Amino acid sequence: MKILLVSFTTETNSGWGRYTRDLARALMNEGHSVVCLNEWLKEKGLPPLHEPDDYLGYSLGWLADRKVLARAIQEFEPDVVHIAVEPYLSLVPLVSIPKRTAIVLTVHGTYAYYPQLTPRFIRPFIKGLYVRALKRLVAITPVSENTQRVLEELLSKNGVVKPKIQAIHNGVWLKDHALPPIPANEKNGFTILSVGAIKARKGNYEILQGMLELRKSHGLKATYRVVGSLDDADSYVQKLKNFISENDMEDQVVFTGRVTDDQVEDELRRTHVIALLPRAVGNSLEGFGLVYLEANAYGVPGIGARQSASEEAILDGKSGLLCNADDPKDIAEKLYQLSQGVIGPEDARAWALTHDWSNIVKQYLTIYGRGA
User: Fold this and answer.
1) Percent of the chain at pLDDT above 70?
2) What is the CB neighbour count within 10 angstroms for residue 270?
3) Of 17, 225, 253, 346, which cross-links 11 as Cys (Cβ 3.0–4.6 Å)?
4) Residues 234 and 348 in one domain
5) pLDDT score of 60
6) How many other CB atoms are found less than 10 A from the CB of residue 121?
């Protein structure tokens, strides 16, 4: 089978890029021929695709992307065109794609129904393209049931007839996490780790509140390491730093900034808990929480929020614990339980194994087959 993945990046510092890279690798491991459009454009010496946010603004320069997509389809003759970055779906009605070609769209989170993110002036035009494109899809594959639920609500609210929708969780490569886990008794203190750009929807503030309560109620002074890009001028970052200062937590919190993939792996091995407390903030939505699985691969348990995609990425009581993200006492209690080793490393790793890409990719191949 020949599959064209439509993305602007395969770099791991982007959620879209990591997903596209991992899916391409999994498909090729199954013996299929895969072209990532961004890499194909680079090889051909052609301009890259416009950034996804360009598809949401007043500038319509992105319409030129239809030419390079049409050329890629003509030359590669794919059996499947898989849109890995949501706004690129707008190109589908503008390009001649053979009827025999299956078209699949993956939605991750915030951009699931991207017409709502556009200015009112051009929203009818973008929505029109979106609706026309949906009619050509074999399926939409959200990365979580939570994302699927939000998408279905938005489609219904906006009067859009939904196509076939089937959630497929993100995957992890167990073989890429081959270094042995570090036993808990060889780790210093009690460390909590968050990975990803600092944003309100990731729940960093709630984690700090839980840590403060943990210190008060159990006398446990945890260290919180936050790995990911941050903007000191951002109001949310300022909110975090003010909370840290007001509660004398300067010696408990470390902001590392962006680090390399190898450094992330080292952080995952050395921490006691991976923490992410997702919440919807306006139109922003956390899709799945792949980092839970990456930590589980090293036997590290996670703590996540109920009523979020954490309920899918964490097997409560086996790979981690779920909590009420609005209740600092509940967060603190779950952190304390994790500090006492209630989750065994082998259970955490076994959960990650069920999400290995070698298993996940088979679900995509089944969907691709519907359009064959």
Assistant:
1) 96
2) 16
3) 17
4) yes
5) 85
6) 8
**C-alpha span between 281 and 51 (Å, rounded):** 23
Q: SS3 string of 29-57?
A: HCCCEEEEHHHHHHHHCCCCCCCHHHHHC
**pLDDT at residue number 13:** 80
Whether 36 contacts 10, CB under 8 Å: yes
Shared-domain flag, residues 270 and 320:
yes
Regarding whether 132 and 33 lie in a shared domain, the answer is yes
How far, in Å, CA of 85 to CA of 52, rounded?
Answer: 7
Two tokens at 191? 């460390």
Domains identified in the chain, total number: 2
Total-model pTM: 0.90
Both tokens of 227, joined, read 């790995």
Please indicate, yes or no, whether residues 139 and 250 belong to a single structural domain of this protein: no
Helices (H), 138-197: 145-157
Cα separation, 255 vs 262, in Å, equals 17
* Same domain flag for 48 and 108: yes
Q: Look up the CATH number of the domain holding residue 187.
A: 3.40.50.2000
Q: Which parts of the chain sit beneath pLDDT 70?
A: 178-181, 183-186, 283-285, 371-372
143 and 286 in contact (C-beta within 8 Å)?
no
Q: Which two three-digit tokens encode residue 304?
A: 């996540």
Which structural domain, as residue segments, surrounds residue 343? 174-354
Tokens of 218: 């159990």
Q: Which amino acid is at 231?
A: D
Examine the domain organization and report whether 59 and 8 are in the same domain.
Answer: yes
Start-to-end CA distance of the chain, whole Å, equals 9
In this predicted structure, what is the pLDDT of residue 229? 87
Phi and psi (nearest 5°) for 35? -125, 125
* pLDDT value of residue 359: 94
Residues 209 and 225 both lie in one domain: yes
Residue 326: other Cβ atoms inside 10 A: 14
pLDDT at 178: 63
Residue 112 has which token pair? 């699931």
Residues 228 and 346 in one domain: yes
CA torsion, ordered 227, 228, 233, 239, to nearest 10 deg = -50
